[in-house]
UniProtKB/TrEMBL annotation:
Catalyzes two distinct but analogous reactions: the reversible epimerization of UDP-glucose to UDP-galactose and the reversible epimerization of UDP-N-acetylglucosamine to UDP-N-acetylgalactosamine. The reaction with UDP-Gal plays a critical role in the Leloir pathway of galactose catabolism in which galactose is converted to the glycolytic intermediate glucose 6-phosphate. It contributes to the catabolism of dietary galactose and enables the endogenous biosynthesis of both UDP-Gal and UDP-GalNAc when exogenous sources are limited. Pfam families: GDP_Man_Dehyd. The gene is LOC100177170. Its cofactor is NAD(+). GO terms for biological process: galactose catabolic process via UDP-galactose, Leloir pathway. Signal peptide: none annotated. Its EC number is 5.1.3.2. This is UDP-glucose 4-epimerase. Residues 7-340 form the NAD(P)-binding domain. It comes from Ciona intestinalis (Transparent sea squirt). It is an enzyme of class 5 (isomerase). The keyword Cell membrane does not apply. InterPro entries: NAD(P)-bd_dom, NAD(P)-bd_dom_sf, UDP_G4E.
Length: 359
């Protein structure tokens, strides 16, 4: 009998790998498709993230995990997956995500994130798979004045700060239009705020190639001695300590949000539903540094710099819709995010890349 599975694109990536663990632990069978463009791979082409997931979960869960190397934009591969398995829903967590690179190479982002998503959606449609959970981002929101915070799903979107953010909004619009054209489609667009931390085991976590763009991997690499100091981008923002404020969410909480979304999908009231995945609490750069110092016992050297172009002062959400629709709310604290990230960084000073080429 054909096995019923959840298909996840980008399942070897940071968020994707944690989603895979939670899905397996929730009893789902999971097919991962990943072209490993941003994930490390071994000689046998099985990415370390997948091998480590196999170690985290138990033997029966391990048997329910399948890996296929390839692009979700490759129609032949997608056809073969949809023919081999009965896919009950797709979690689309694949795609490029470097904000800076997207400004330098916008076409790369529009092709990889938008054009290939069209192939994915068309393949799903042709195989009559019409349930999708999309990894969207809080960057789809237009900048709002501080009095309009927290951000709700009704807050204005658009006027994106970079092509990466535009691709997320394009894909949301494509998916929304598809639900309008065909009432069988069910789409949940999970707008992640700032996913950080790592799995409690220390086995999987964020593994950026090159110099990290994001705050927490950079702090972790300073703590472990790979970088000299953290550049704090802006100390004159209208925030309590002058540094940027964000809504950090433990990646395992984010992953659990996908399991909750999967359960809620069949009973959705409308075809397309954006949902914020955030804690509702803003934390500043310096507060994150202090939390990491507490977790690691290492002093993080900081150097105050100018603001980073495109950054906003403050961003956090109102997570009530996620609770109403999914029964989901964040459970893990900022201290747990830092403790788990520190464990991962300590156990894997060179990340998941086998040869440590991510230096
Ligand atoms: C957080 C805060 C920085 C680095 C981006 C994407 C978003 C997303 C998460 C993508 C800001 C400050 C950072 C550093 C610093 N998801 N900072 N020194 O910009 O909120 O969101 O990443 O996949 O889509 O836009 O996250 O971690 O880059 O920055 O001072 O070296 O830390 O200025 O205030 P951001 P971030």
């Amino acid at each position: 009998m054909t096995e019923t599975c959840v298909l996840i694109t980008g399942g070897a990536g940071f968020v994707g790998s944690h989603v895979v663990v939670e899905l397996l632990e929730a009893g789902e069978s999971v097919v991962v498709i990943d072209n490993l463009s941003n994930a490390a791979s071994d000689k046998d082409n099985l990415p370390p993230a997948i091998k480590r997931i196999q170690n985290i979960v138990n033997a029966s869960q391990r048997k329910r995990l399948y890996f296929r190397k390839g692009s979700y934009g490759d129609r032949n591969i997608m056809d073969s997956i949809f023919n081999e398995f009965k896919i009950k829903a797709v979690i689309h967590a694949g795609g490029f995500k470097a904000v800076g690179e997207s400004k330098e190479l916008p076409m790369k982002y529009y092709k990889n994130n938008v054009k290939e998503a069209l192939t994915l959606v068309k393949a799903m449609n042709d195989h009559d798979v019409k349930n999708i959970i999309f990894s969207s981002s809080a960057t789809v929101y237009a900048e709002v004045p501080p009095e309009k915070l927290p951000l709700t799903e009704e807050s204005p979107v658009g006027n994106c700060s970079c092509p990466y953010a535009s691709t997320k909004l394009f894909i949301e619009n494509i998916l929304r239009d598809v639900t309008v054209s065909d009432g069988q489609w069910k789409v949940m667009s999970l707008r992640y705020f700032n996913p950080v931390g790592a799995h409690h085991s220390g086995m999987i976590g964020e593994d950026p190639k090159g110099i990290p763009n994001n705050l927490m991997p950079f702090i972790a690499q300073v703590a472990v001695g790979r970088r000299k100091a953290l550049n704090v981008f802006g100390s004159d923002y209208p925030t309590p300590d002058g540094t940027g404020v964000r809504d950090y969410v433990h990646v395992v909480d984010i992953a659990k949000g996908h399991v909750a979304a999967l359960k809620a999908l069949p009973n959705m009231k409308q075809g397309f539903q954006p949902i914020n995945l955030g804690s509702g609490v803003g934390t500043s750069v310096l507060e994150m540094v202090q939390a990491f110092e507490r977790a690691s016992g290492v002093v993080i050297k900081t150097v105050m710099q100018d603001r980073r172009p495109g950054d906003v002062a403050s961003m956090y959400c109102q997570p009530t819709l996620a609770f109403e629709e999914l029964g989901w709310k964040t459970e893990k604290t900022v201290d747990e995010m830092c403790e788990d990230l520190w464990r991962f960084q300590n156990q894997n000073p060179n990340g998941l890349h086998p040869s440590g080429e991510s230096n």
